[in-house]
Amino acid sequence: MKHADIVIIGAGPAGSAAAATACGLGLQTALIDARRFPRDKLCGGLITGRSRRNYRDIFGLDMPGALADRKTAPEFHLHGQPLGPINDVPPLDLTMRWDFDAATHAKAIAAGAVDMSGHRVTGLDRAARRLTLGDGRHLRYGVLIGADGVNSWTARQLFGAAFDRATIGFALEIEAAGAHLDPAAPIRIDIAAVAWGYGWRFPKSCATTVGVGGLMARNGDMKAAMHRYMAQLGIAEDAARLKGQFLPFGDFRKVPGQGAVLLAGDAAGLVDPITGEGIAHALHSGQLAARAAHAALAGGGPETALRRYQRLLRPLHRELRMARLLRPLFHVPALQRRLAPAFRQSTTLKRQYMDLLAGEAGYGDILRGLARRVPALALAHRAGRPGPP
Description:
By secondary structure, the chain is α/β, with parallel strands linked by helices. Helix content is about 40%, strand content about 20%. It has eleven helices and 18 strands. The protein has helices at about 15-25, 50-60, 95-110, 155-160, 220-235, 280-300, 305-330, 335-345, 345-360, 365-375, 375-385, and strands at about 5-10, 30-35, 45, 70, 75-80, 80, 90-95, 115, 120-125, 130-135, 140-145, 170-175, 190, 195-205, 210-215, 245, 255-260, 260-265. The longest helix has 27 residues, at about 305-330. The chain is globular and about 60 Å long. It starts with a strand and ends in a 6-residue tail after the last helix.
């Protein structure tokens, strides 16, 4: 293949969503990934209602039940103390990224994308709109979409660095197994298991995914925090199985690309800084990037793709800004002390949080609800700042 209307680097959820959408719009599409599928990926694998809705919108059918374990009663803790039960909530699913990414990649190829997995990109000539592959071949594009993760090669070509080390997060994770682990146990999320971050225990039929993640600049020894969390959960330590990865943590790129080159998913920093949700935003941003590329190629020229993409991303960027406004509530000790009783005592707040994950509510709803219950936040909300330090 020597030319494609759209070339996508990275065939995870964002890239596969972009490829399936582009093919549905009649565009010749190449989907490149340095690895072949299935392949491993560090991720808790939480599939929210928002993720399921985006999956259905992009691929035209519900996500297969075989890809996930369904949970309906999550548990939230703060400093190890429970924040009260949350019942009768929209269901959450847990998946193994090995399976999920292979399935979405297969959907993109079935939609008509040219499968170029197993090929590494080594050069980018933006003036000629041409990529160089590891085997020396060249591939021209109309619009290029970089969906190649937090360590994005594409972002490095555009901006010199894939992310800002002062604001990036970092996560450690393990797939734990053993008779002491219960696949039917509820999801558990521990706020403040690390500084400006959280821990998670996601029981699945094949293993239990356990991890911690937070701002790297606030955590000098993430391994020690991970060991403490595993001990708290009663999970035997096995450092050989620890996986680590940088984690976008709310510091999304305000300008996600340049001209005819767009960034989607983790490459654009589109991860919720409170819930850690990334799959839903990856799917959605891949879809939006493909739509922007199609509009640019149909009229106005490839260089207009970024402007069109930014316009489509405005609602998502607005939600992430609102999440950043609320984030200190979960991570600043003085505000945590105000949040904990409000969250523990309010069924409404818990329900709103779960509706947020289901895609049925936004951060504005939660902010207004909290402002009525936490006086310090009410003052901060009126002043337009995140609250006292």
